[in-house]
Design goal:
The structure is a single chain. The protein is built from 22 helices and 41 strands. With about 800 residues, it is of the alpha+beta class. The protein folds into 5 domains: about 150 residues, no CATH class; about 60 residues; about 260 residues, 7-stranded beta/alpha barrel (Alpha-Beta Barrel), CATH 3.20.110.20; about 120 residues, no CATH class; about 150 residues, no CATH class. The strands form 10 sheets. It has a 9-stranded antiparallel β-sheet, with no helix packed on it. The chain has a 5-stranded mixed β-sheet with strand order 1-2-11-10-7. Strands 12, 15, 16, 22 and 23 form a 5-stranded parallel β-sheet that branches. It starts with a strand and ends in a 7-residue tail after the last strand.
Length: about 800
């Protein structure tokens, strides 16, 4: 029997799977050709004879009922699926779509009202693999009826046949990528024999493994490190806004590891697991057993998976102190591999990882940034303090950027890695655990039979398997990384996002107040980041949290801060129930137990409210004290003159600004009006040789756009700080490095030659027209005020 798909389909591999179904393979010698029409647009353009077609349309979640060989399955079409309405007096209907046939079957032809392979892909993103089985069974049932055959139930191993077909198709595509010959017949013959009950399917997988190694003989590792959302108390985001789904997914993958030999790792926050455990203790117990048996393990280890470059050294240290303690409490062990889906890498990280007992790291990023290309197989990643940790770098094929698409893109990624001369292929998948991904199950099933496609490995498995690969010592610089917080360029979240500067400013103030009680009693900025002192290169890291001394922050105080720094709380501060899965990825299948319509954009701040993040607040600047001096204010702009340079001029992309009033004094008060925005109050004073400013926005401010980059619609400060090509140095943990990026983030401060710029949470800068701009308000910033400072030093500290 031969199958023909003249119009193609969304996921070709699942059409291939139908062709390799054992009930179809058993008919290998039949001289029958069955045509399958799977695309609604093509049907509307050229309807088959005897069928009336209307459309195509975008679905509105119509109910579909598909008959299988074991019963029926009722589903709904995910939103915006392309469909056509079919009608015929002569063709046999197979299932329903609304009140129309879901498919029509005629002699040697089957016509589908929507692409069934697209339906499979959408439901895989809804955490459902059973739909894959039922849809493929429905397709095969239609094929058999079209061929005049009686549909039979599939044998127990039928999904392994699909895995073989997809794996063979995948290896064939690799051969094409590399210009190598590939012959299917040595694989298909034992597969047909197995379908007829005259042989074992394992022989076909063995033949495929041999064929793949003739095309390319390299070790290939699938390193799945599945990312989870955030749960704070009973409040969560993404799949964790429906904790039952989170527990079901954790159980699902553990079941794969037990039943299919799937080996994988988790990237889930320790605090989230601790919050999940009381309601789902059996899930945690199963994961503990799987970790003990080496089938899975946890990576990362932080309390709340923060973007580490946004937070101070002490806050990052506390992330590991409390995160690792939670893992010990839940599992009796702690992670030894650091990996993170979202951007959390920086040049000082190896020192902290080694101090906390980590033995290896994955230097790759899927979201919110990019790790530098590095085509050395493995490295000893060196931190600024001199510590080194064995590390898998980000090979330039960039498999981590494909997420769960690594299985569909296996041929391309393997070929690109091979072309770079690497001794192995490491396909790292950091995707959210919700999105299972096309062909993943089939890859897992294929790897159970052998290494035709490679092998699945935990992080520890991978490093053990590559222990003999030479490593090169290497230190990365800040400029090697791209840290991308421009959420308007993210197609999924946009209007829910923003507020990064406000978040940093708020928790910076909370931590400053906490640390001000410590016995040292020094200014919190100096203690944490060296803002008013020189850069501190010595990394003083204590592994254990210990018992707080008198005046030191308590564990509960730290956990509130760490919850507030959890990645989802500020990446997506506003959302509605189910929004994550509804944002064009798929459809949210969970309970709509609450709907919010009274917020400004129809969404609310459940996570931010859970951690007590205020809806408005003022910055925590170095406040003026007795003895501070006035500054020289420019009456035309409201900026400050320092050695002939103008600092702190308030500007906006929305319109021109002008000074409304100036009230001189030790603290000069200025009102600056910005067209189409409003009147801002600016307070200026001098402290320890630095000009300091506090900018307060109006009570009501226009909503900045969410659909363009933040710098294109914002209020910012304009500085003219240096002449010529003075180096720009940004600081993190008191460590300074030069930058050539036109837009950059600096946690601590910025120096340009002899000029030093200080700031609160507003650490986002750009270089434009020879000036330095410091962004204050853009989309969804909730802070009422931000502060900044500037001084010119005759002998600035060098990084």
């Amino acid at each position: 029997m031969k199958l023909v798909f003249p119009d193609g389909c969304a996921l070709e591999g699942y059409a291939i799977a139908a062709a390799w179904d054992p009930r179809i393979l058993a008919l290998e010698d039949d001289a029958v050709q069955v045509t399958l029409r799977l695309k609604a647009d093509a049907l509307a353009a050229a309807p088959p004879q005897g069928i009336a077609v209307s459309g195509p349309f975008a679905s509105s979640k119509e109910r579909i009922v598909i008959p299988t060989t074991t019963g029926t399955r009722t589903l709904h079409l995910p939103r915006d699926t392309r469909l056509a309405c079919l009608a015929s007096a002569d063709w046999t209907p197979a299932g329903t779509l609304g009140q129309h046939p879901a498919a029509l079957v005629g002699d040697n032809e089957a016509v589908f009202a929507f692409d069934p392979t697209d339906l499979i892909g959408r439901y895989l993103n809804m955490m459902d693999t059973t739909v894959t089985s039922d849809v493929l069974d429905w397709m095969v049932r239609c094929i058999l009826i079209a061929a005049g055959r009686r549909p039979a139930r599939p044998p127990a191993s039928w999904r392994d046949f699909h895995a073989l077909g997809i794996a063979a198709w995948t290896v064939g595509r690799l051969a094409s990528e590399l210009g190598q010959p590939f012959d299917l017949s040595p694989i298909r013959r034992p597969a047909v024999a197995a379908a007829r009950g005259k042989g074992e399917l394992a022989a076909a997988f063995d033949a495929l493994a041999t064929a793949r190694k003739q095309v390319l003989d390299l070790p290939i590792y699938f390193v799945d490190i599945l990312h989870g959302g955030i749960l704070i108390g009973r409040e969560g985001f993404a799949e964790y806004d429906w904790p039952q789904a989170a527990a079901d997914l954790l159980d699902f993958y553990e079941g794969w590891s037990r039943d299919l030999g799937y080996r994988y790792s988790h990237d889930v926050a320790a605090g989230t697991l601790l919050n999940l455990a009381p309601m789902f203790p059996e899930t945690v117990a199963r994961l503990r057993a799987a970790w003990d048996e080496g089938r899975t393990e946890f990576a990362n280890g932080t309390w709340s998976q923060p973007y580490l470059p946004l937070w101070s050294r002490e806050e990052c240290r506390q992330q590991f102190v409390h995160g690792l303690a939670a893992f010990e409490q839940l599992f009796g062990r702690r992670p030894t591999t650091y990996a993170a889906q979202e951007f959390a890498l920086h040049p000082a990280l190896p020192d902290m990882l080694r101090a906390f007992g980590y033995t290896q790291a994955i230097h790759r990023v899927q979201n919110m940034g990019t790790a530098p290309d590095d085509d050395r197989p493995l490295i000893d990643w060196e931190g600024v303090g001199g510590a080194v940790i064995p590390t898998l770098p980000s090979h330039s094929a960039k498999s981590e950027k494909f997420g769960s698409g690594i299985y569909a893109n296996w041929p391309r990624l393997v070929a690109e890695t091979h072309r770079r001369g690497l001794p192995f292929v490491a396909l790292v998948n950091l995707i959210d655990q919700t999105f299972i991904g096309a062909y993943k199950e089939e890859c897992v099933r294929a790897c159970r039979f052998g290494d035709a496609l490679g092998r699945f490995a935990t992080c520890s498995d991978f490093f053990a398997a590559t222990a003999d690969v030479p490593r090169v010592r290497h230190r990365y610089a800040w400029d090697d990384y791209v840290f991308d917080l421009e959420m308007p360029t993210n197609n999924y979240h946009r209007y829910e996002s923003g507020g990064f500067s406000s978040t940093i400013e708020y928790w910076r103030g909370v931590v400053a107040n906490m640390m001000a009680r410590t016995p040292q009693g020094c200014h919190p900025q100096a203690k944490l980041e060296g803002v008013f002192t020189g850069p501190a290169r010595t990394l003083n890291l204590s592994v254990e949290g210990g018992t707080p001394q008198a005046g030191e922050p308590t564990a509960d105080e730290w956990l509130r801060v760490l919850d507030g720094e959890a990645h989802d709380t500020y990446v997506l501060p506003n959302f509605k129930t189910g929004a994550f899965l509804d944002l064009y990825l798929t459809d949210y299948p969970g309970p709509r137990y609450r709907v919010t319509v009274d917020e400004r954009r129809g969404v609310t701040r459940f996570i931010r409210d859970a951690v007590g993040f205020p809806r408005e607040f003022h910055a925590t600047p170095p406040m003026p004290v007795e003895g501070d001096a006035p500054v020289e204010v420019d009456p035309a702009t409201g900026g400050v003159w320092l050695e002939g340079r103008l600092f702190g001029v308030l500007c906006s992309t929305r319109g021109a600004s002008h000074v409304v009033s100036i009230e001189p004094g030790a603290v000069t008060r200025i009102v600056v009006a910005i067209e189409a925005v409003g009147e801002f109050v600016v307070r200026l004073w001098a402290r320890e040789g630095a000009a300091c400013g506090l900018v307060e926005r109006p009570a009501e401010i226009p909503w900045f756009r969410h659909d363009i980059p933040y710098w294109q619609d914002c209020v910012y400060l304009r500085h003219a700080p240096a002449e010529g090509d003075a180096p720009i140095v940004r600081y993190y943990w008191g460590i300074g490095e030069t930058t050539r990026h036109a837009e950059f983030y600096s946690r601590d401060r910025v120096t340009i030659g002899r000029v030093e710029l200080l700031h609160g949470g507003n650490g986002f800068y750009r270089i434009a027209g020879g000036e330095v701009h410091n962004r204050l308000w853009s989309h969804n910033e909730t802070a009422r005020s931000f502060w900044w400072g500037a001084r010119v030093d005759a002998s600035p500290p060098r990084p």
